[in-house]
Amino acid sequence: MKRIQLLDKQFALSIPASDIKKALWEMAEKMNKELKDQNPLMICILNGSFMFSADLMKLIDFPCEISFVKLASYEGMGSTGKVKQLIGLNEEIEGRTVVLLEDIVDTGVTIENLMNQLDSQKPKDVKVATLLFKPEACKKNVKLDYVGLEIPNDFIVGYGLDYDGYGRNLPDIYTVID
Ligand SMILES: O=P(O)(O)OC[C@H]1O[C@H](OP(=O)(O)OP(=O)(O)O)[C@H](O)[C@@H]1O
Ligand SMILES: Nc1nc2[nH]cnc2c(=O)[nH]1
């Protein structure tokens, strides 16, 4: 099994790029059917979601816009339980369908926090698309409309996800070796 080193940790290949690609195709196919008349605003949650959002958007064939917010809740290999908003949303979303694009829903703290924040701006609907979901780690009752892959409760890097800033550029996803 392929291994890599990032800073002081070793990681083993767990999700090859080909599996990520397949999950994206399936998600886009579903979105293309369900959202074709919604003219949604897609919101990429930076930093982690930059690669997932860029690849997914290339497979979307309905009219839509994209915007970006920057949130942070994870430090090192764990959730702080608190969400810091580093860049907010400028667009008007009242009466509009919004689709949140997340690389991962882990504890669910980040996505729940953003959904609560957006709710006060009275959108028509808020949908969530996440490439990865850790069901065993999730503490929040959030409805996930589009899920690429369910994964175990282990720390991962690659495809946008980092370990202390490193590894976001990797095309595959790797799991930390204890
Ligand atoms: O479900 P949660 O436990 O809230 O974890 C999910 C969040 O953690 C990661 O972001 P992070 O805080 O690491 O910031 P980053 O995207 O800049 O890496 C990821 O991109 C999600 O936004
Ligand atoms: N890099 C990384 N960031 C996360 N944010 C929430 N869960 C994770 C994870 O497993 N890895």
Task: Describe the structure in your own words.
The chain has 178 residues and is of the alpha/beta class. The protein contains three helices and ten strands; from the N terminus they run ββαβαβββαββββ. The chain has helices at 17-34, 50-57, 109-119; strands at residues 3-6, 9-15, 41-46, 65-75, 78-87, 97-105, 125-133, 146-150, 156-157, 173-176. Strand 1 (3-6) and strand 2 form a beta hairpin. Helix 1 (17-34) crosses helix 2. The structure holds 1-O-pyrophosphono-5-O-phosphono-alpha-D-ribofuranose and guanine. Residues 74, 104, 106, 155-157, 161-163 line the site of guanine.
- Percent strand equals 35-45%
Let me know the largest β-sheet.
6 strands, mixed
Based on secondary structure, the structural category is alpha/beta
| Mean pLDDT reading | 96
Runs with pLDDT <50, length 5+? none
Q: Helix and strand string, N-terminal first?
A: EEHEHEEEHEEEE
Number of helices: 3
Tally of separate domains? 1
User: What's the CATH C level?
Assistant: Alpha Beta
Distance between the termini: 15 Å
Largest sheet, order of strands side by side? 5-4-3-6-7-8
Indicate the radius of gyration in whole angstroms: 16 Å
| Helix content range | 10-25%
Bound molecule kinds, no repeats: 1-O-pyrophosphono-5-O-phosphono-alpha-D-ribofuranose, guanine
The CATH topology corresponds to Rossmann fold
CATH architecture: 3-Layer(aba) Sandwich
**CA-based shape:** globular
**What is the total tally of β strands?**
10
InterPro entries: HGPRT, Hxn_phspho_trans, PRTase-like, PRTase_dom
Organism: Marinilabilia salmonicolor
Pfam families: Pribosyltran
Catalytic activity: IMP + diphosphate = hypoxanthine + 5-phospho-alpha-D-ribose 1-diphosphate; GMP + diphosphate = guanine + 5-phospho-alpha-D-ribose 1-diphosphate
